[in-house]
Amino acid sequence: MALEEYTPPREPWIDIVYQDDDILVVNKPAGLLSVPGRLPEYYDSMWSRLVEEFADIQVVHRLDMSTSGLMLLAKHKQAECHLKKQFQYRLTHKLYYARVWGKVEGREGVIDLPLICDWSNRPRQKVCFDEGKPSQTRYVVEQEEAQTTLLKLLPITGRSHQLRVHCMEIGAPIVGDEFYATPEAFEYSDRLALHASELSFYHPATNQRFKIFVPCEFYPQALPQIEQHFEIAPELPDYSKLKA
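^ thats the sequence. predicted structure below, dont judge the formating
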């Protein structure tokens, strides 16, 4: 799907998974921008829909337009600063599901390939060992299928298109990916099969660990399991003792 054909889904208009006085978590549908694009025709986004009801809503992180799943927002500036600091110090943890084309070698592993914007082909990204930013993704094979493999993806860093490029680079592009999939992998699915299913962070009001889960549309049997893959402290660590 090219942005020139931007036709975001309208139902549900907003799917709020959780909210309180400080934070709001939504299940963003595939095909909707996280924030408005530069042109007026790309204004419709998760943020622009929410700001109509929550005037001070702040975006903490983003999902690609084609990716579905959990998106965390702050209801005021103090909460925004608190949460963005957690992303900076990699205190948040995310678990994605992806259906990729073909087989993946081994049951699990780490993809460690530096990424940089492919400026002549924006918004595509590419591997660059000279100038790319360090980028790491853990993967675990969840299920082998006839033509595809279902992966759990556990990003260590959070670069643009990181999961999509890393899967492509190990020879297993995500099906339905308009930028990185082979023609047969792209045609296999009517959407990018990438979903942010679980998120763990520290609540800005309490500094206590907070975790949340939403089911995966293309893998409905998925259950919460982020704690099987990360050791997560119950309380917010001291920032001063950490390196960004």
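The chain has a mean pLDDT of 95.
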